[in-house]
Amino acid sequence: MEQVRFDEKVAVITGAGGGLGKAYALLLASRGAKVVVNDLGGTFDGSGSDSTPAQQVVDEIKASGGEAVASYDSVAEYESAQKIINTALDTYGKIDILINNAGILRDKSLVKMEVEDYRKIMSVHLDGTFFCTKAAFPSMKEQEYGRIISTASAAGLYGNFGQTNYGAAKMGIVGLMNSVAQEGMRYNIKANTIVPTAGTRLTFTVMPEDVISKVKPDYVAPIVAWLSSDNCEESGKMFSAGGGYYARAAVVEGHGITFGLEKEITVEMIAENMDKITSLEDAREYSSAMEQAGTVLSKMSGQ
Ligand code: NAI
Fold first, then answer.
1. Is the pLDDT of residue 303 over 70?
2. Could you list the residue range(s) of the whole structural domain that residue 260 is in?
3. How far is the CA of 263 from the centre of ligand 1 (A)?
4. For FRET with 96, which of 1, 9, 107, 132 sits at 20 to 30 Å CA-CA?
């Protein structure tokens, strides 16, 4: 296969001053992309700011002969998210690739979680992904080209103790990307979601040190790069990646049971048929809410 390249492509990567975002930035730049390296540079729980991390990644890319510019704005407010995207438009004249990756953690059990911890997580992850995507979308639509990769988490897909805020935001991102994929379809804008596992400062409290050093962000970067590339046709999909493992994840719906509407449907009928309702045998994946609604209506009319 020919080498996948990003010559003439402009990529914005949020939270690219370290961890996964840095790995994406280095890989894309090494293959010809002009990269906006965005990072607010705060602590892992979202306090403070520092221009050093983004600048260091830019310096590293330039030292290897690549092209990059730093952006220190936060994804968490719309005006500053617009500035991030404008850095690409003003410096390089366009934006082809957006990787929504910036993130923080504020883990606490539901009872102990302050409303502020919930809001802060929603604002960086979910609002930040919405704001950057909304700011980038018009240019992508006009040029009829765009690749958007956003970042979810197994904590969202499957749940995790102490991460009600983070899990909600991360699953919200899946819903956001599903609809962005539909709106982008006519304009060659593909939107996908990555579910990564990597040793970074966000995972150093939950992963043993030797695992942290082995599960390198570099292993997630190749699939993110592929999803960012010209020839990738995937859209509206979720991919898990980490430590050399790559797989698609999906929301599916079971075959279920359909009762005729000629007589009353009782609570007992539900209870007695819970095995059929719960079963995922012959489960299917829907490509849109409309397709799912069509199935519901056709079952109702007995087709
Ligand atoms: P990281 O802490 O190394 O990287 C996140 C970066 O985002 C940091 O450099 C931080 O300064 C930046 N950032 C935080 N708030 C920002 C804001 N408001 N505006 C701009 N930049 C901001 O952590 P990691 O692990 O590389 O995380 C990257 C993404 O992957 C996050 O969205 C995280 O939730 C997600 N993720 C990571 C997993 C892992 O195993 N490392 C697992 C699941 C999801």
1. no
2. 252-300
3. 53
4. 1
